[in-house]
Amino acid sequence: MCFEGSGFGWEHDTLCEVVFNSAMCGYTELLTDPSYAGQGVVMTYPLIGNYGVCYDDAESVRPWLSAYIVHRVSDVASNFRSDVDLNTFLKNNRIPGVQGVDTRALTKVLRESGTMRGMIAYGEAADRDEMKKKIRAFRMESMVPRVSCKEPAVYGDGPVKVSLADYGVKNNIIRSLVSRGCTVRRFPHDASFEELMSFDPDGIMLTNGPGDPKDCGKEIGELKRVYAHGVPTFAICLGHQLMALAQGFDTYKLKYGHRGINHPVKELAENRVYITSQNHGYVVDGKTVDPSVADISFVSMNDGSIEGLNYKNGKVFSVQFHPEASPGPLDTGFLFDRFLSLMGGSRL
User: Fold this and answer.
1) Given this model, what pLDDT does residue 348 score?
2) pTM here?
3) Which CATH number is 6-137 given?
4) pLDDT tens column, 288-310
5) Domain residue spans in the chain?
6) What is the CATH number of domain 144-342?
7) How far is CA 88 from the centre of its chain?
8) Is 322 a catalytic residue?
9) Annotated catalytic residue, options 29, 219, 222, 324
10) Among 237, 263, 280, 307, which one carries the catalytic annotation?
């Protein structure tokens, strides 16, 4: 199918994996979330850009998605916190955009047929047969090495020390730890077990990130050693999937993923539902979870898929959603407090 619109941002042809997000706001956080690397994001909400872009809200140093597809970009950025309008922000960061598209019709296609490859092409004379060839030949490569830090960095100066494995970390994960009295040392995605432990950490944080978790073979191998050592560990999103794979569980790709800021999940032990922010295309396969190794802690109220695991060693727990993303706004922030308690610390 071909959807026509007009360009904005950086007008440049690009190939990507096309996904949709149902959020009505939070596009600055979405654009700068490394988990979207390699993807063209379709927004179901019809008007985007009305409050501009505030750099303080960014989740990383730059936007990572491959393309941004919206129904309409606001002509006015009306917010006292705005630093730049959306069009200029995308142009400055070389991100292609398309507006004027019937995004709800496009979303219906993605829901019915599943996430698929696509191409953004500019110009009236675009050769559709040639575009089809490029789309068929396109393959999503592992984006984790691209979005991860290249060198270790330290944040905060609190008494509780956390080694953070950066698979595409969002800034607010680091802020959530630092605000609770942690000193966080951020390591590249391929850091060895010895490197993670060289900080003499009280705990290890495994972060979110883009792509298929099965592409991260080295990281999975190191997490087997982390688990065997018994250091307190909290894993989010991709980190949750990698720890599951490290324990012999399996993952699979969802038809069209979970991407939005109003996804309900239930904590089974408390029989309580929370509203969460989510951005993932893969989940842990519940049929492969060994009950002698882990208990399912959270499930999606939309499709029943696994949203969290508590491991029987008492030192590791993980969630598929983003507890730092403030959809409620503080619905699941208590998970960071739980991590502090597991490390023997307490919230300041």
Assistant:
1) 43
2) 0.95
3) 3.50.30.20
4) 999 999 999 999 999 999 999 99
5) 6-137, 144-342
6) 3.40.50.880
7) 24
8) yes
9) 324
10) 237
